[in-house]
Structure prediction request, 927 residues.
Amino acid sequence: MKACGSLLIACLLIVGVVQASVLSVLNWDGNNVGTNWNQWAVSAVSNGNDIVYSWSRTGNLDGGTVNDTLSFDLRLKAWTGSSFDGTHINPGAVYMISADRNLTTNAPNQHFGPGGDIDNGQSFQLSVENISFTQGESNGWVAVFDGFSHISKYGTDNTTFYFGTTNAEAVYMTGDGDTGFAGPVDVLTVTASANNNRFRDLDFSFTTTNPAPSQTASSFWFMQTAGTNELVLNNGRILTNLNDSALSCTSSSDGGTLVYSIEWAGNDLNDDGITDTLSFDLLVEGFTNSTYAYSTNANESSMTALGGASDATEGDGAWGVFGDDDVDAGESLRFSVTNLQVSAPGCSAVFEGFTGFEAQESGGRDHLLIIGEGTGLAGKEFDAASAQYTFPAVEPFIVTGAGSFYDHLEWAVSELYFKISVENPATSNVWNATDYSDYVVGPQMGDEYPEQESYSNYPAFSWDTVPRWLIIRKSSAYTEGEINSMATNYNLIVWEKANSAGFDSIEEGILDTSTRIRAVDPSTKNIFYLNSYIHYGGYAANAIYEPYAWEWSNHTTDTNGQEVIYMFKDRYYTHNYSVPGLRNWWVDTMMSMATNPVIDGVFIDKVTQSISSVYDESGQPVSDYLTMLDQLDQALPEGKLFLGNTLRNERNYAGRAYMELQEGSYFERWSLPNNNAVPAQSDAEAVAVTLQLMREGVSKGKIMLFNTGSPDGYDSTQAHLQEHIDWPLALYLIVAETNAYFAYQGGVDATDPDWLWDLSWLPEFNRPLGAPLGDPIKDGFIYTRSYEHVDVMVDLETRETVLAWDCVDADGDGMNDLWEYRNFGNTTNETASANPDGDTYTNLEEYIAGLNPNVFDTFAVSDFTAGASNTFGWSAVSGRLYNVYWSSNLIDGFSLIESNVPGGTFSDTNYAGDAAGFYKITVELEP
Prediction:
């Protein structure tokens, strides 16, 4: 845990919630109060010789829709002259502690202990009492104290401490060390055996439980840790562990195989009001003398035979093979799940596979391993205390050692991630864009944000072609050609930093360029950019900042121990939000541009704080930073857009709370996993959550700005940009709705060649798109969707992508990609001359006639009516032209009556009086 200082609870982490959201996370380190601290009311009073700290918080604590209240007392006792007889602690004389040592005091040098320190023979004791949980929904939930689980020591001295009173546990702690306990303890007693010791960090947790839960769940992620019998369960709504009585794990061995029997009884899986049980066994097997070949080239390693069975071992917090608890060269571990059962009637459990693991070294460096069995495998190398790997789900999971730099210093597997789903046929498969329970990060997503109420000054939107936006900068003046292209091809433009455009300041350059854009197309929206944290140069407003730079900027300590202004990248100031003058200057800078008629809104970059809510229970912003953004939101005139670089899967809470202030968000770094996800989040899920964030945003009327360059890195060639557009464009099209826009750029600096940043030359941006024909379909990590002129499919795990356009014939067989994909499920496998349905037409002829190549059918005249005019029809499809012919007999041939008939009906008066004759219809593709 982070080193920090306070009298009593220096770091208080309230975590671990069963069937509910996390109650709170407090990160206290003296003068730096964590983001959730202000959500708690804390007071301290003397109670006899003790101090009692009363805690209370009101908020949405159980995942419902109405606020709840949790309160409890934390009691501190202390003694001097305690003794240890080898088994028990005998507390000495009671020590009176002054109640003025308050948790809410910003005092960086306060610590646990009777007098701040804890000396030889001194003891302190902490306990929790008077727990009260009042639930807004009145659904019978209760709060349970799970116990104290971890404590950290501060200082350089090495000391033995005794934890407990009866059968006390002796722990030797060194320096800034920390320790967990054998198990959570309800009452924590600590006794020192030497002087001048300090404790500053303490973890304890509460759980809110529902004796008769009714909420269903369909996805279950597990993180099993070796050696300590630790297990974490995430069902997309709650995150819990073995402190929860509904989760159990027992270990045994079957020969050389380790068996972990796991059971979860905390959900009603079929919504019948009865709590159900999910159970299974996790098996760990060891092998020696595996046949392997390691390659430094990607996916060129192999492991073709497991070798002989050996004992799988569990020691030092990791799984290994045979006696040394490591995975040596040629040794393999195989993990599998068996005996999977679910008690809910009508439901079935499916093992979705292993999705990742953590490797832990025992020392040394350059550890090699191979993931999987067979050829074409991934070979990995790590040189750190541990390394975490995620991958598309596999079953079973096999990992093989391929050697280390030091043969006697190897590595082992310390954590394992896997997923189980429960399928309930009665559950709807509709993709609910506000429900994040399908994702590992689901429990942290918190409450929904409100729908947009005003759409004043939104950009124009059309499905004619791919709707686009642009983020750009240029220090020199834009050319007329650049202005015309930007105004013509983009609905919204964010004018980024360094955009002086040949003027003395960025503000002047942006105003001039925006005026030029508006003269070409008044509907294009011009957005002013300002970073909220990094103080970039070139703005005229910086002249106001400079005299106050010391006060308004963040500070650090240089190598001489002197306090100096912190310079980001040794070049830029960073903003100190705690100073009202800085906040006012930043908002005034935004407003000086936002009030100009040619500026349609503002864009903030570097959104710095991960928050679950903008406002606290009293309606006040939860931090100085949010105070600044709230101030801007209140000041912006009606119709001025407030956008930002906000929504990101990689951040806790994903930035969703900011949407209460903003009209929309930009998306970058959209493929990066959230490193705090438990278990680890895969790359595929990171993209899946990004798609959901966009889908949720547009469903609530927000402007969503998807931004990307080549997913495989920037490249200076047009061929590279053309080659790599399909993947990000397909992702955008899967979730696009009105107010969603796409940007694909090789860079954001317009001093580069135009083709690198203005990719309007790409054919994908000039093809007809048409409106979506329905909502996207989500099947695991595979998404599909149809538009009028293109079908889309993406597999997030393999990155397989299909964009089947009706204006493209990729294999040159005369049949467009869209028709082939809709009829055959691919765009290249069928030939023009094939006849899979066995009728009289080839595939090409069926395509031209608009028939179904998989059904025995014909192209024929129908609904013939004779009279003053002969009227008849045929099955017509768009994009075809029809020609009508007449013949009085079949010997002399046909003559053309009318060409290029666009529809499927025709009336003929020329030959209506003839006693007999023949009509012929031909069909051809529109040119």
Remarks:
- The CA atoms of residues 350 and 737 lie 33 Å apart.
- The chain has twelve helices and 56 strands.
- The first strand starts at residue 11 and ends at 13.
- The radius of gyration is 34 Å.
